[in-house]
Design brief:
It holds the Pfam family Hexapep_GlmU. The chain is α/β, with parallel strands linked by helices. The protein contains 11 helices and 29 strands. About 45% of the residues are buried.
Length: about 425
């Protein structure tokens, strides 16, 4: 294993390129106004903050973020929360929206094309390695360790992988590897995923994380850009080509996952559905959640909005403001309301006789008196009318809002406006 000094120098000469242009359509109305990486998570952060924080905590000080779909919310967050990297310290933070830099008619056509269109910017930094990251997953990972393994194996590309049950692997790009973790075949969403050697019930699924030598990557992107039959995508085109013609290695997430003694699993989540999003947020209210967001040794950096502390008021009869087994962010006012096993983002106001149970409430939501809301996700800025009841009548919930098969109800202001108009 390389020394810490060696791996640190690798990180300092690397560039983290975060792909954050996707919509994430399975999150339904949560991504009507924002890209998936900009969706709120965990009471204070956005999803993209995890990939960015991993890069920063790993020692990488040159970072770029490619944006495309409805990027204003994401760009505003990046400008406010990630503007502390300084060129005087050989640091940089580039926001790279699709801007027709290669052609006046060409936006980012694929994940590989997003980097190809910015090659001149990356080359200007004189970097040795590029770490390509998806900006829409929740996890804690030390990229230094993956960089060191990449160099030690002499790979041309190293692919970050997680071990998943073979039936689950049909939804992923799967790495078929030999006994040394060299990738011998890349299969996109295979019906019969190949097992891991020695682990017949598991398969290696791609995390959308790739490490390249910078010069090799630029050559491959230029080659791919000239291929008229390519979709200019890493998973569909670039990685399979290298697997066939070069040396591609799999890096197992367990080797670089950051966790403390309280975290039992190698936590990684694609919170890409309403159910998965609700579940991952509600899990944070557990006594010992699967993801420790309180780990001061691996902080999740974000835009720190200046707000007053949370406030709980009234204790008269049944008008009591309290929260149990919940995460409540700053600026919240729990005014005579009962909050149980819920996660409240910044500046939520729950008025008297409100009852929240298993609720994920995004910032700036105002909940009117006597409302009873169970197993809900409430979008930012929603005004819940007095007396609204959700989570007790499945048929009524499905008529008025978006209800998933598992019973999670997504509420947006547009849905409430339509309800009121009808």
């Amino acid at each position: 294993m390389p020394s810490r000094a060696t791996s640190t120098s690798l990180a300092r000469n690397a560039f983290a390129f975060v792909l954050a242009g996707g919509r994430g359509s399975r999150l339904k109305e949560l991504t009507d106004r924002r890209a998936k990486p900009a969706v709120f998570f965990g009471g204070k952060t956005r999803i993209i903050d995890f990939a960015l924080s991993n890069a920063l905590n790993s020692g990488i000080r040159r970072i770029g973020v490619a944006t495309q779909y409805k990027a204003h919310s994401l760009i505003r967050h990046l400008q406010r929360g990630w503007n502390f990297l300084r060129v005087e310290r050989n640091e940089s933070f580039d926001i790279l929206p699709a801007s027709q830099r290669v052609s006046e008619t060409q936006w980012y056509e694929g994940t590989a094309d997003a980097i190809y269109q910015n090659i001149d910017i990356l080359e200007s930094y004189g970097i040795d390695h590029v770490v390509v990251l998806a900006g829409d997953h929740v996890y804690k990972m030390d990229y230094e360790l993956m960089l060191a393994e990449h160099v030690a194996t002499g790979a041309e590309v190293t692919v970050g992988c997680i071990e998943v049950p073979r039936p689950t692997a049909t939804a992923f790009g799967v790495m078929h590897v030999d006994e040394n973790d060299r990738i011998v075949e890349f299969l996109e969403k295979p019906a019969d995923p190949p097992p891991i050697p020695g682990k017949p019930d598991l398969a290696l699924a791609s995390m959308g994380i790739y490490v390249f030598d910078a010069r090799f990557l630029f050559d491959q992107l230029r080659r791919d850009a000239e291929d008229p039959d390519s979709a200019h995508d890493f998973g569909r085109d670039v990685i399979p080509f290298i697997v066939r013609h070069g040396k591609a290695m799999a890096h197992r997430y367990q080797r670089s996952c950051v966790r403390n003694e309280g975290e039992q699993e190698a936590y990684w989540r694609d919170v890409g559905t309403v159910d998965a999003y609700w579940e991952a947020n509600i899990d944070l209210t557990s006594v010992t959640p699967a993801l420790d967001i309180y780990d001061r040794d691996w902080p999740i950096w974000t835009y720190a909005e200046i707000v007053p502390p949370a406030k709980f008021v009234h204790d008269v009869g049944d008008r009591r403001g309290f929260a149990t087994s919940s995460v409540v962010a700053g600026g919240c006012i729990i005014s005579g309301a009962a909050v149980e096993r819920s996660l409240l983002f910044t500046n939520v106001h729950a008025h008297s006789w409100v009852r929240l149970e298993e609720a994920v409430v995004l910032p700036d939501v105002d909940i009117g008196r006597h409302a009873r809301l169970k197993k809900v996700v409430i979008d930012r800025g929603v005004r819940i009318p007095d007396g609204l009841v959700v989570g007790e009548d499945p048929e009524a919930d499905a008529r008025r809002f978006r209800r998933t098969e598992s019973g999670v109800v997504l509420i947006t202001q547009a849905m409430l406006d339509q309800l009121e108009a009808g």
